[in-house]
Each structure stands twice: as structure tokens, then as C-alpha cells.
Amino acid sequence: MATWATALTLDSSSPLMEQLIFFHDHALSILLIITILVGYLLTELLFNKQINRFLLEGQLIELIWTILPALTLIFIALPSLQLLYLIDEMKNPLISIKSIGHQWYWSYEYSDFKNLEFNSYMIPPQESQSYHFRLLDVDNRTIVPFNSQIRLLVTAADVIHSWTVPALGVKIDATPGRLNQIKFLLNRPGLFFGQCSEICGTNHSFMPIVLESISPSNFIKWIKSQV
């Protein structure tokens, strides 16, 4: 969960988020090198008094400053394409969960377990206890096992929503009449918070997402207690 004065990305909780952080650092390093180089060249250009009265063309330097940006874009594009295919990769999911966006709450269906269904509403501030996270906690958390491939099917019942959990590197639109899917894998237990990131109406800010990651054995016990 993000806290005050967080300058960098959240600690990753899934292999996908680790790769996204690596790509962020990779792209930022390239941008830093470009910024320093261009800043140095501009400073030298502005503060030196050297001139060349016979300089009419510079085909070599023009060739260099055409090829270098193209190579830089390739260095950024190749890892980006790899990540795009990695996000869409769907291989032997252990559990399928369907999430439906409503105005303004989420409902979940565990279709693998006798169609276990529940709604997830934000806990109002006047009802929250000291152990609740204000405006972020819900009455029914989404329980998932860690170290397990999970497929999330997302749709909406009314307007466009967006199911987003930053610590997992997951953001997927919930569109009425369309079923989108994404996969994720949690590598540690804990609570992971998210929110709808698509402006969906008056109470858009008040439909949080809470994932509770537990061990597979505890997940089986929870399923047995629900069905």
C-alpha cells in the first residue's frame, strides 16, 4: 500500500510487478543518460565562443544523431514488447475468479467452487474500526492463495470500471458486454489494496479492492467454510 512521501514504486508482490519495475529502471536509466548528454551539449554550446566560418554541412554528425535515437528506441521497445506478451501469457491457471464492476462496488464469483459469490463494499468511515484502513477496506475481502496462478475475468454491469492493484502490476478494464482476462501470481502473504482507476461516476473513489493472500491450505479451509 502506498504511504506518504513514497518516491519509488511499491515493493513487488508478484513476478510480473518485478519485471515492470526492472523495465521502469531500465527506461529511466536511458532517459537519465540522454538528459545529462543533452544538458552538457547545450551548456557547451551556450558558453563557448568558438566558431567555424567554413562549416557548411556535417553529414557524419547528422548520420550519428539519426541512428543513435533509433537504437535507443529499440533498446526501450524490445523489453516493452516482451512485457506485453508476458502480461497476456495464460498458462494453466489454478483458480479462475470473476470480478464484476457495479456502481459503486465489486462483486466476485469463484466459479470453480460451486459458484461461490459475494459483494465487496467499502466500509464507511463512520463504521470503520481502528484496524480498518480508512476508505480502503471492504466488508468482504477477495481471498486468494499465494504461489498459485490465478486467472481473473473482469466485466462490468453498468459503466466502464477498471480493476487495478498496483502491488501486483495489474490493471484491466471492466467493460459492459465484454469479458477481459488477466493472470497474476502472488509470491507472499499479505493484504493488497487497489481501487477503480476509471472515472465511473459520483462514487468512483469509493469502490476499493482488497486482496488477502493466504497459504493454499488456509485457502482450502476458507472455501470449505463458505460452500
Automatic annotation (TrEMBL):
Family, per entry: Belongs to the cytochrome c oxidase subunit 2 family.
Family annotation (InterPro entries): CcO_II, CcO_II-like_C, CcO_II_C, Copper_CuA, Cupredoxin, Cyt_c_oxidase_su2_TM_dom, Cyt_c_oxidase_su2_TM_sf
GO annotation, cellular component aspect: mitochondrial inner membrane
Primary localisation category: mitochondrion
Cofactors demanded by this protein: Cu cation
Domain of life of the source: Eukaryota
GO molecular function: copper ion binding; cytochrome-c oxidase activity
A Pfam family annotated for this UniProt entry: COX2_TM
Cofactor binding note: Binds a copper A center.
The organism of origin for this protein: Agrilus discalis
Cellular localisation: Mitochondrion inner membrane
The protein's name: Cytochrome c oxidase subunit 2
Spans through the membrane: 20-42, 63-87
UniProtKB keywords: Copper, Electron transport, Magnesium, Membrane, Metal-binding, Mitochondrion, Mitochondrion inner membrane, Respiratory chain, Translocase, Transmembrane, Transmembrane helix, Transport
UniProt domain Cytochrome oxidase subunit II copper A binding: residue ranges: 92-225
Membrane topology: Multi-pass membrane protein
Biological role: Component of the cytochrome c oxidase, the last enzyme in the mitochondrial electron transport chain which drives oxidative phosphorylation. The respiratory chain contains 3 multisubunit complexes succinate dehydrogenase (complex II, CII), ubiquinol-cytochrome c oxidoreductase (cytochrome b-c1 complex, complex III, CIII) and cytochrome c oxidase (complex IV, CIV), that cooperate to transfer electrons derived from NADH and succinate to molecular oxygen, creating an electrochemical gradient over the inner membrane that drives transmembrane transport and the ATP synthase.
Gene Ontology biological process terms from the UniProt entry: ATP synthesis coupled electron transport
Residue ranges of every copy of the Cytochrome oxidase subunit II transmembrane region profile domain listed in the record: 1-91
PANTHER family in the record: CYTOCHROME C OXIDASE SUBUNIT 2, CYTOCHROME C OXIDASE, SUBUNIT II
Catalytic activity: 4 Fe(II)-[cytochrome c] + O2 + 8 H(+)(in) = 4 Fe(III)-[cytochrome c] + 2 H2O + 4 H(+)(out)
Assembly notes: Component of the cytochrome c oxidase (complex IV, CIV), a multisubunit enzyme composed of a catalytic core of 3 subunits and several supernumerary subunits. The complex exists as a monomer or a dimer and forms supercomplexes (SCs) in the inner mitochondrial membrane with ubiquinol-cytochrome c oxidoreductase (cytochrome b-c1 complex, complex III, CIII).
GN (gene name): COII
